[in-house]
Design a protein that fits this description.
2 helices, Immunoglobulin-like, S-layer protein, disordered N terminus, mainly beta, A-galactase_NEW3, 28 strands, 5-stranded antiparallel beta sheet, transmembrane, rod-shaped, membrane, 427 residues
Length: 427
């Protein structure tokens, strides 16, 4: 037992004597090796504004390592990109970068780090592949100097690399309105909108359909909103005519209208070009005024009222008819009169037959009148209500009746007296 214990102690002592001192590790060569790529799609359309995520990858390796006693293990590897910052530049491209440079920290070998940028592609950008410079600035371990057994000095070097990010601008159709015209488009009526559009893009719009749409709360409302124009090649123009109505509460001024183009692209998919908002001039409404009231009428009589109506609006009224509403003390079996076509500024007279109650109070009465007409597209419209002033009083044809009878009697008496006087003077 004592012999076994002695042998074990001797073995342990021998092991302690022959075991080497603890060894350390030191990397002599290695540096960061960076690359960058866009996560997800790198395709843009002209006019796009979108955030992209760029992944920066460090594939740098540490190629030579020394392991020996007395070396202090370092806590920094030479292939690590430390304090990394990135800046995306537009370069000579139709792209605006709307994000400032940013810090993304340390990137160890074999690791990646993300950076996000907002890009805006110009609306007139030509299709193609563009390279955006990505400047990456970082600090790397340049050298390690061990002093003694407990001190290590690091030497650092700052480096800036320019990587290239590729984006692809797709071919699309963009439209521009080269001419706008209106016909009979007035407040409260329906008229025509004439458009000429041009394909300003770099792709042919196949089976294209041109559309108009109401812009917000604009009083210009499409009633016929789409026209098929077929294939529209880049630089080619097409014309189309639409129907639109204007709300009655609008004013004579210019209002917005949105223009759209639906088409089939080169991938045989349905696409829509970005909408274009244009101004549509709207004329004043068709309106009427009573410019001449009828002569006074007498109680208990039937009279013909001559009323003159004037078109004070900005468009022609077609197939116009005037109507008065007879109220007590008036009655009428003939309250509608045909005026026909009345151009702006033109006046026409209408005749209505009314009967006046015998007990009517002598004063001025107001009768409601309106004009029903058709606009340029044949839609029935009704004017605002107007007042026709009618005076009820004893007219000149009634008042002289009694004096006339008295006058005739007096003349008869005078004549009879003169005749009698002459007879008496005869011999």
């Amino acid at each position: 037992m004592r012999a076994a214990t002695l042998m074990t102690a001797i073995a342990l002592l021998a092991g302690c004597i022959i075991t080497p001192a603890s060894a350390g590790e030191k990397y002599l060569y290695g540096e960061p090796k960076l690359s960058a790529a866009i996560a997800g799609s790198n395709e843009f359309e002209p006019g796009d504004e979108r955030q992209i995520t760029v992944m920066i990858e460090n594939s740098g390796l540490n190629t030579v390592k020394i392991v020996q006693p007395g070396i202090i293990n370092g806590d920094v590897l030479p292939n690590t990109a430390r304090l990394t910052s990135v800046a995306l530049l537009p370069g000579d491209t139709p792209v605006r970068v709307k994000t400032d440079p940013q810090m993304i920290g340390d990137i160890a070998g074999g690791a990646t780090a993300p950076a996000s940028f907002v890009l805006k592609v110009e609306r007139d950008a030509e299709p193609g592949v563009y390279s955006l410079p990505l400047q990456v600035t970082y600090t790397r371990l340049y050298a390690t100097d061990q002093q003694g057994s407990d001190l290590t000095t690091y030497s650092w070097a700052e480096k800036t690399e320019t990587l290239q990010l590729e984006i692809r601008v797709k071919e699309i159709v963009t439209i521009a309105v080269s001419d706008v015209g209106v016909e009979s488009l007035n407040v409260g009526t329906e008229g025509f909108v004439h458009l000429k559009v041009r394909n300003n893009g770099f792709e042919t719009a196949h089976a294209a359909v041109l559309k108009i749409a109401r812009s917000g709360m604009s009083p210009v409302i499409p009633t016929d909103d789409s026209v098929f124009i077929g294939d529209l090649m880049p630089g080619q123009e097409a014309e189309a005519t639409f129907k639109a109505s204007v709300s009655k509460g609008a004013e004579a001024q210019t209002y917005p209208l949105t223009i759209l183009l639906e088409y089939e692209n080169s991938d045989h998919q349905t696409a829509t070009a970005d909408g274009v908002t244009i101004g549509i001039p709207v004329g004043g409404k068709i309106d009427f005024a009573v410019v001449a009231s009828p002569a006074p009428v007498a109680p208990g009589q039937k009279a013909v009222l001559d009323v003159t109506f004037k078109n004070t609006g900005s468009a022609t009224a077609h197939s116009a008819q005037a109507r008065v509403s007879a109220v007590d003390p008036f009655t009428s079996d003939d309250d509608t009169a045909y005026l026909g076509e009345i151009a702006p500024g033109e006046s026409k007279s209408a005749r209505f037959t009314v009967s006046v109650d015998a007990g009517a109070t002598e004063k001025i009465y107001g009768l409601d009148a309106e004009v029903r007409y058709r606009d340029a597209l044949g839609n029935t419209q009704v004017s605002d209500t107007m007042k026709v002033d009618i005076e009820v009083r004893q007219t000149g044809g009634d008042l002289p009746l009694l004096p006339a009878l008295l006058g005739l009697s007096l003349l008869g008496c005078i004549g009879y007296g003169a005749w009698t006087f002459r007879l008496r003077r005869r011999p």
